[in-house]
Write a structure and sequence with these properties.
About 40% of the residues lie in helices and about 15% in strands. With about 300 residues, the chain is α/β, with parallel strands linked by helices.
């Protein structure tokens, strides 16, 4: 089987490439390194083909891939401030370039959408049929709305042009190869705890997150891609915890006595996030297997070795 992984040098993309290699795929990666890291694929660089390319330009290939995974998109809050137009472009024009490629050459397309399409949700946990509560003019809208456009494009190409598509809604994922400076809660907490500093908790820390370990997450991607499910599917870990509980768990693991420091909550920060994974369980027979303790330990080993 031949796979193209767009955004394959990033955090999730590189773990997906590892999984596909284990399954003996012939792999091509496209990445422009806007947020990815060449080092993420160093350990397998002789086993795959890597093309440096911005997917906002047409894909410079003409062969057929059985599976095309599109994970290209900056995804951290710091990027929302730095490169909002690029994010919007990558999930619209860039994703359309991927869909056009499949329309012309064949192959099944996977779109990496996000739980952010639910915005600050009014229902809990979030099922795929929930249409969301996104602030279209807020600081996160460049990302949230970009992903909604990406989903719409995916649907148009499926219904009108016969492209075979799969859409995943990814909930917060963590693990080795996250960028230490990327502004998300796990790298922030590990960086601060390793430096024996207090962990920064925004608001009173009662907001919740449900964190999925990266290996579980990419196994969900693969299961979805092998299935016949064309509706969006939530992939994430439903075990929910408060940010304060997470901070305390990391301080305990790293034996950091510096505690936590509270700061004001950023605008539009979602209060609660938890996937309803009934569809994934029923249709894909997938559910996360790795406990938070095990996942945090593996992530600690990564940040500690940096
Ligand atoms: N990590 C999460 O918790 C999470 C949650 C929800 C959705 N997602 C989605 O999953 C995907 C991967 O996220 P990640 O956390 O691995 O982020 P990441 O930034 O580590 O990976 C994205 C990769 O895409 C590349 N890229 C971005 N724009 C590109 C372009 N125009 N052309 C070519 N390459 C480009 C980047 O260089 C990077 O290697 C993204 O689409 C993201 O929106 C991630």
């Amino acid at each position: 089987m031949k796979a193209l992984v767009v955004g394959g040098s990033g955090f999730l993309g590189s773990h997906l490439v590892d999984l596909l290699l284990e399954k003996n795929y012939e792999i091509t990666v496209i990445d422009n390194y806007v947020t990815g890291n060449k080092k993420n694929l160093n350990h397998i660089q002789n086993k795959i083909r890597i093309i440096e390319h911005d997917v906002n330009q047409p894909i410079p290939l003409s062969e057929k891939f059985d599976e095309i995974y599109n994970l290209a998109s900056p995804a951290s809050p710091i990027d929302f401030e730095r490169i909002p137009l690029f994010i919007l472009e990558t999930n619209s024009k860039g994703h359309q370039n991927v869909l056009e490629y499949a329309k012309n050459h064949g192959g099944r397309v996977f779109f990496a959408s996000t739980s952010e399409v639910y915005g600050d949700p009014e229902i809990h946990p979030q099922q795929e049929d929930y249409r969301g509560n996104v602030n279209i003019n807020g600081p996160r809208s460049c990302y949230d709305e970009a992903k909604r456009i990406g989903e719409t494009l995916t649907t148009i190409y499926r219904l009108h042009y016969g492209v075979d598509t799969r859409t995943v809604r990814i909930f917060n994922t963590y693990g080795p190869r996250m960028r230490p400076e990327d502004g998300r809660v796990i790298p922030n907490f590990f960086t601060q705890a390793l430096a024996k500093k207090p962990l920064t908790v925004y608001g009173d820390g009662s907001q919740t997150r449900s964190l999925c370990y990266v290996r579980d997450e990419v196994e969900g991607f693969y299961a979805l891609m092998q299935s016949s499910e064309t509706r969006p599917v939530n992939i994430g870990n439903p075990s929910e915890m408060t940010i304060l509980e997470l901070a305390q768990a990391i301080n305990k693991l790293l034996k950091n006595d510096a505690g936590v420091e509270f700061k004001p909550l950023p605008k539009d920060d979602p209060q609660r996030r938890r996937p309803d994974i009934t569809r994934a369980k029923q249709v894909l027979k997938w559910q996360p297997r790795i406990s938070l303790d095990e996942g945090l330990q593996k992530t600690f080993e990564y940040f500690n070795s940096k």
